[in-house]
Task: structure prediction
Amino acid sequence: MSPQIFPVIMAGGSGTRFWPLSRSNKPKQFLELTSDKTLIAETLARARTFSGLENCLIVCGARHAALVKKSLPKLRTKNILIEPAARNTAPAIALAALHVAKRNPEGVLVVLPSDQHVSNLSAFAAAIDEAVSIADTGMIVTLGITPTRPETGYGYIKQGAKLSGQTKRVAAFVEKPDVSTAKKYVSSKQYLWNAGIFVFRADVMLEAFSAHLPQSNEPLENIFESLGTNKAATVLAREFNNIPANSIDYAIAEKAENMAVVPCDCGWSDVGSFNALSEVRAMDANGNVSDSASHVVIDSRDCVVVGNQKLIALVGMNDVVVVDTPDALLVMPKDRSQDVKKVIEALKANKKWTALL
Amino acid sequence: MSPQIFPVIMAGGSGTRFWPLSRSNKPKQFLELTSDKTLIAETLARARTFSGLENCLIVCGARHAALVKKSLPKLRTKNILIEPAARNTAPAIALAALHVAKRNPEGVLVVLPSDQHVSNLSAFAAAIDEAVSIADTGMIVTLGITPTRPETGYGYIKQGAKLSGQTKRVAAFVEKPDVSTAKKYVSSKQYLWNAGIFVFRADVMLEAFSAHLPQSNEPLENIFESLGTNKAATVLAREFNNIPANSIDYAIAEKAENMAVVPCDCGWSDVGSFNALSEVRAMDANGNVSDSASHVVIDSRDCVVVGNQKLIALVGMNDVVVVDTPDALLVMPKDRSQDVKKVIEALKANKKWTALL
Result:
């Protein structure tokens, strides 16, 4: 019998790299960055190909629950799991595993970040299918994205011995490398990008928490007991903060022995900054990316233009990002995309700009 | 007896170099580019130091008369002379000379473009005072701006024999030079910028029209006869188009023998493009010019930021112009400021953008 699949979409993130498009009350996953659908809606569309909508779970913070419902109108409220606090990915995944375990301890979770882009859906689906099969045997499986450049912004996964099909054991999770190390990783063909996509049985992950994060045992047991009772919310609010605030990588993946990786070449992007829109959106003949027909781009190359409120005209600009919103406008070179945070710091330093954060 | 002075502000211009700040129904002279007053209001403020407001005349097109009144609320309607059509500066100046001649044929006109900036008002006033004295003797006097750079965008005036005080005869008006010629002009100290500022008696200019532009004799006589009658508007509408559509430089100044030039070093700027805002507005320590306290400029040098509708954030930009308005945004390198016209062409090519012109 094929395993019951529970896609779990992690929507607790609140980065600032897409300011001024994203704001603290509307983070990246709720933006229409790659199409006319939000990233989280695109993610749910991928997830639904693995199971019915009734098995899809979203984990998010209370402040974003309304946005989740608005972005995903067909999803039932009970499928939205509210984190009482943002405590990184390990507690969020444990919470999802508890919910699945209550319905089916051997149910397989497919954990997907809510803010990524995949262009080759069939390659992605094939990798998930293989991951689900391997997970069903008791492994914790991660998707490893075939690197297309010596990216220093991602963690890498070193592939170990072959397990079955395309799947390998994980030899090691390695931190974000420097450029020369990243180049070696890519040319070795041994290393894959860690995309934060994990596939595992609920019972297997809960055992892993028990083994590698024993401080979580008591809070997880208490939350599990309360599920379905009228005390669930109270217990969750109290106990969630007792689960160590770690990433699933650090808390579990780097420690567990039963880790596997399925290589996947699926046109994946984490859409990490405005710069990345060049990867996921159609370009004109000069490499410019624009989200509106109301832009006039003259003698310009490799620019990213975002904004549908007005005509935006560029003349003679190269490698520049222009983002226009009703109350804030950002202009920067593409290679400074990471420095949006400097603007955020400036805004935080002056109360008159609080509403823009 | 000192001559009666009539400042004449030429407000018929309709350039596009300040798009999207300027539009066809709101040209440059009606923008607050150099201060919180419009350029035309700044010009009137300078003009008023030479005469009472009742002697100040504005020449403009019918479509801009309402804007003139709004910008210059203290000016009486009868002091606004409406050109029936835009026919360059010669007909406009002739029209003003006719109006002045009706009041006082020996009245001295001080013709000032409406869209320039002067930072040293006392130097400017001293030069005008000297020009008025010389004009009173029957000369047509122009102000020659001491050049501060080998500008190729202006015409130059070659100084001739000394006439009186600082004033020289005009040896020649020369067209916009190439860079190497402009450099020679500047280093020679013989050449001054032609700022389009002319000072002359009404009767002297009308005689010059008669001598050098005889086709204008009949229309000017007909207009003159009609002034103050109930036929004035009808006659003007009919006859104005019979005056050749030339510049005053070409029609009169380059031909007349009685031309004089007063050198003037008064922090003059024609505010020719967004680039020029660096000349006329206060800069921060990194050479950036901004018209609002709601801009965040980080790691950026020598930029011009215009827009007071929202926060504008620049990160890592150099030598760039950013102009934000409610319905259009422009981003370009400063040295492409002349290429705003390429955007205008693109907008003209598509009807959906007509409202933005």
Observations:
- Chain A has a mean pLDDT of 96.
- The first strand of chain A starts at residue 5 and ends at 10.
